[in-house]
Design brief:
Two copies of one chain form a homodimer.
Chain A lengths: L24 E5 L6 E6 L2 E4 H6 L17 H6 L1 H15 L6 H5 L2 E3 L4 E3 L7 E4 L3 H12 L15 E3 L5 E3 L4 E2 L2 E4 L8 E4 L3 E2 L2 E7 L9 H7 E9 L1 E2 H7 L13 E3 L4 E2 H4 L3 E2 L19 E2 L2 E7 L6 E7 L7 H8 L11 E3 L14 H4 L7 E2 L5 E2 L7 E9 L4 E12 L9
Parallel strand pairs in A: 6-22, 8-16, 9-26
Antiparallel strand pairs in A: 1-2, 1-5, 2-3, 3-4, 6-7, 10-11, 12-15, 13-14, 13-22, 14-16, 14-17, 18-19, 20-21, 20-25, 23-24, 25-26
Amino acid sequence: MSLIQSWLASANRPDNPFPVNNLALGVFSTGDDDPRCGVAIGDMILDCRAAERSGLLEIPGGGFFGQPSWNQVMQAGPATWSALRARLTGILSRGSRDEAAARQHLTAMSDAKMHMPFTVAEYTDFYAGRHHATNVGTMFRGADNALPPNWLHMPIGYNGRASSVVVSGSDIRRPWGQLKGPDHDKPAFMPCRRFDFELEMGAIVGTPSNGPVTVDQADAMIFGYVLLNDWSARDIQAWEYQPLGPFQAKATATTISPWIIMKAALEPFRVDAPERKVELLSYLKDTGPMLYDIDLEVSLSPQGSDGTTITRTNYREMYYSAAQQLAHHTSSGCPMRTGDLLGSGTISGPAKSARGSLLELSWGGKEPLRLDCGEDRSFLLDGDTLTLSGVAQGDGYMIGFGQCTGTLLPALEAPYTA
Amino acid sequence: MSLIQSWLASANRPDNPFPVNNLALGVFSTGDDDPRCGVAIGDMILDCRAAERSGLLEIPGGGFFGQPSWNQVMQAGPATWSALRARLTGILSRGSRDEAAARQHLTAMSDAKMHMPFTVAEYTDFYAGRHHATNVGTMFRGADNALPPNWLHMPIGYNGRASSVVVSGSDIRRPWGQLKGPDHDKPAFMPCRRFDFELEMGAIVGTPSNGPVTVDQADAMIFGYVLLNDWSARDIQAWEYQPLGPFQAKATATTISPWIIMKAALEPFRVDAPERKVELLSYLKDTGPMLYDIDLEVSLSPQGSDGTTITRTNYREMYYSAAQQLAHHTSSGCPMRTGDLLGSGTISGPAKSARGSLLELSWGGKEPLRLDCGEDRSFLLDGDTLTLSGVAQGDGYMIGFGQCTGTLLPALEAPYTA
């Protein structure tokens, strides 16, 4: 696969994240206009609602762009997804007879405000990166018991809170919570002191299921991927998580990037999962390359300072693919719906510089991280802006995910108004 | 509070669960008709959609009954809830000038099929019954470590799966899952062998929140209550739940009763929480009686046999109220939405005959339960029908919850079709 040339020059630059090969899907608004569906192309956005109304963007089944979300397209299934990509490629490629018409529906990305690209039905977060699970397990249980006994047999996950998922750019309020330090004899209700990020990818369920699905069926159900930051209150988590898992520690917010990268755009970047230390049960077995070679990095900017890249890793470091996670998720018969969001789990590489959370980077606060501006960080401070970015590097082009960013605001002085 | 007489004789019988005092809200259909909102009265249902269209049931804000769910009323808030109850009471009470008009919109309950009464936004399940937590903890960790250290300080909960919530009467398919018995050296993928019920109440969030709310604010947000059976695969749970909590063990199905009992109907039955062993933090403190005196029982009927009552207990046995659970749920800033469903956690009383799950009743399978038909049960067998029922007993009248029932079907022979 090489670059598909567009009549829009900015889409052909090798460092542009949004060539015709990508066709990233978002929801945007400009000025006082309503949010509406758009496709990223170069440094512009094609307004899908306007293009549909003018007759330019007709997809069999029709009428997809009346709502400010991609759920209707997602639910329509793979034939519609292919038809959409084919039509958009036809419109946006160099030599298209639709160039003049399409140019009327372009908006500069820099003028657009981005909104949630889809309605999240439910949100599930996994714990499926082996380096992350090993690091966290070593800190909490020692190196000999780092991985729980079930870990190599199934993708461990828990249900998160869909109502807390926000789009990149949303400010994040440091939470209050019940916590108890090792040096305290009683718990207290106070602002979180160990607020952290988690570098993840989010997989989005397109077509629903009702009953167990195979790994191949699960892969076919996935519509696309986003970057995902699962903000985490480590001190709240430490006190609450036994015996039923994380709850309020993960409920403040989860941020996703504004552009859905369709699975089709990522096909050239499929890679095999890491070597299996233990043979997987049949229902979870790898049936082909289902991870993706996506370079990921995280930047941390204290208020008023430039950012420091604090992590560089790759999505291929995961032990379980999103398809395996989704297959496991349905194994009990759990119905999955259009818009279900599956967080990969924190993506850490083997190197120290490839760790996907401050908990790991600062080793539980014992080894604070030195930023370029000279400040140290164990956990996030008020005013810090954290930004994830991701790119799949092709031959002369790239598939970019854009950015997933958020700034941490101070905790409310008093959380209760009554 | 005493019985409010109706012009409908069946609503005035002291053993009828649905007097004018109750005004239970459901969604029903008859024959080929669409599902629509209805109110239970005696052995009949008042068709709210038809009553609204005819001009009989006008509520300020109007147009509430076009959708087959109560979410729109729930979202409208307490003033609408009160107006609805006042108007329905006016229509249905003895001497009402609306009797003749209302009689045109009555359907026999026995002719109606019941549907989900509301759209579940998200589902959270708690672990807030002290006797249950003590029983389970004793089995798993011994009597000295029965309650986790955090248990007396906060209502422990985890996020469940809204897509798996079904209405009473839905058949339940025994799940497959990954499990590993203590006698096995490797996990296997097989049908669950320890399938169980959990007797719970469900609280339904009416008005949304965005940020921490107090216990009093939380109580005001609650629209009503249902019976809830959190079907549980104990063997799947035992293998998967460390370290992130129950996942597929709780994702097969959760059944709720078809009638929402509004909080207002339960006001006369408010009771205080049990004595606090440890002082609660301010944000969780009791501010008044927020539990309810509701008698609960569970019946188990093997296929072709009469039912045996296997549990009798009361909702007042809970340690934390739904208002406290909801306040804790928002403490991190987690947004709550109309239609969020909060399971109380299993409601067990102190007596052996008051235990709310087979896990406790059969003490992990060590003391099988003898049914009236002569069969023994440690966990549920295929064909078993399990029924929860609940009643608040007033002076010459009762507020009934109806029933929450489901029959266990055998596991699929082969779960995968591909």
